[in-house]
Amino acid sequence: MRIAVVGLVFLALFATMVLRLWSLQVIGQKSATAAVNSNQIRTVAVPAARGQILDRNNRVLVGNQDEQQIVLSRYQAYADPAIIAKVAALVGQTPAQINAALKDSQFSVYQPVPVLTGAPMTTIQYLDEHQAEFPGVSVQQTTVRTYPMGGACGCIATHVLGYVGPISTTELKGDPTAGYVPSSLVGQSGLENSYEPYLRGVPGKDELSVNAQDQVVGTLNKSAPQEGDILVTNIDTNLQAAVQADLQATILADRNTIDTTTKLYPAATNGAAIVMNVDTGAVLAMASYPTYNLNAWVGGISSAAYTALSAGCTSATAGCPLDNYAIQGLYTPGSTFKMVTATAALKDGLISAGQYVDDKGVFNVPGCNTSGGAGAGCAFNDAEAQGAGDVNLSEALTLSDDYYFYNLGDLFYEDTSKFGQTPIQNEADAYGLDQVTGVDLPDEAQGRVDSQPERQLLHRENAALAPNTTWYAGDNIEMAFGQGATEITPLELADAYATFANGGTRYQPQVGSALINPANDKVVKKIAPKVTGHVSLPPAVYDPILQGLEGVVEQNGTAGKTFQQYAHFSPGQFQIAGKTGTADTCAGNCNKGIDEPNAWFVAFGPEPNPEYVVVVVVDQGGYGATAAAPAVMNIFNYLVANPIGGVVLPSPKNPPTTVPLPSNAPAGTPAPATTTTTAPKG
After folding, report:
1. What is the band of 126 on the pLDDT scale with cuts at 50, 70, 90?
2. To 5 degrees, how large is the angle CA 22–CA 26–CA 31?
3. Contact, 538 vs 638, CB < 8 A?
4. Are residues 219 and 343 located together in one domain of the fold?
5. Kindly report the CA angle at 489 between 414 and 563, in degrees rounded to 5?
6. In sequence order, what are the beta bridge partners of 598?
7. For the residues 339-352, what does the mean pLDDT come to?
8. What is the CATH number of the domain that holds 375?
9. Residue among 403, 315, 377 at smallest CA distance from 619
10. What is the arithmetic mean of pLDDT over 96-125?
């Protein structure tokens, strides 16, 4: 009996073993085979060439260039450490730098590590001639970004285009399904960042065979990478170059021209300029100053170069080249905001266009006394009009009459039962001045229009930083003429004036125009104009405001002398309307009671069917008419001579080119001198 029981136990164990072997060999055969194969095969991503970025005339703003790259095998370096010093001497680096590259986790362990990108031909030739001395060292081809329209400085549309750099750990973990690897290069700013999913292309794959020591012994399969889509932009390269030059020249001139009011040389720390189509929101040019060289980022920017670039970013007296002030700079708008207040006053029936106000030079807030808490103050002085006498709304805009708008701010404050607490702010919201525009560029800042609800919101978020929640007549008066705590970006102002210029339709500013598949030249995506809001502008509101803005550049307007000096076209040829802005900053000299204001000028034209809006701002530049308006006039000089045409898409018959498009000299440019010689008689 005992023998029978033991026999049954052994029989059961044997049966179990047989079943398990059958399961492993038959049922689990496929998974086991796959596991074995996975131990022998390693898949490595092969980066794709990024898509080109073109301007609206089919010119290459950002392209690709093949460069030679010297690489070192990790296995060889570990097997023969002496090779590290040899390679360091070959590529002009230190052994510590080579070791750091070998330890860099962004590079696959199954691929050689790049130690020098853009290797000179002399180095490559030397390596070829002495290959036996450099085991594990080879040359491979890689693709880097180029900027054909930027010249040696690589500085055409720098902040708009942006740069690429190594993917960060956060970015790598952010979208694990995107197919990125630690060695991926991604757009870090500008259009390179905004259109990354299209520009990056589709990486290829190399299936490598490895041995038991995890060493690559062969290549089993290859799939080629697919180049990224082409991004066609609304940017006009020649206009962009003119805008950049005019902005820089204006800022440098401001720094060297004494302000006759403050007797100081303006700091003019930074600035921005924008040209936009008023009927579509297409951004035709966008410049920010100071700027930098995009070529510095090709192959990886050095620590020294990055430190130098970022030095001004923590200083209150210097500009930050890394910031795009056109979309990230927040400036007090000053008198450019008066268009908004005028719109609110006429639409709400606060005042009629023909009603006159007697400008006495100093506006005293009725019933105000400092002991009772006056907010911004009890008395407000004219800055430019200086007691102009009787003025109506159009004249107030033309003369930038502060007294007139002080009065509007006070009238709105005194009758909240009829107009509500935020009638001007509501109109600013309709124009988009308190919200991001949605432009297709990263890290856009959001404007802020001061109000009591806004102060209360900020107080709830951080009482220590925003302790003041009160709102007095003086605060409403300051807000009404673009002062106080109101801050907006240059692009928000451009969008607001474009909205007025086209009759009330607010468009989302757009740099991109279309995406094209480079393999077949088919349109992947057409970026159509996008409406983001409306402002009701009936003729009774629109006409008197337009009349006032047209008057700004006429003889008696705040920019009349500037127009006569810098604009080399007549109103009959190209009528423009605009507004100066001089906004207190109180930066750096508040303890002395002296401050250099922000200088603004915004204009649109040609009337009566405007196409372009142009904005220029100079931080701490002085008065708008002298520190910003000259640049706007020069930009219009270019536009008068070079109307912007439609967007040209690439095609097999018309491929992208790096040949610059010819352009006409700006209006008023003197003709080149010519010398006539007469042949001798006989």
Report:
1. confident
2. 120
3. no
4. no
5. 90
6. 583
7. 98
8. 3.40.710.10
9. 315
10. 80
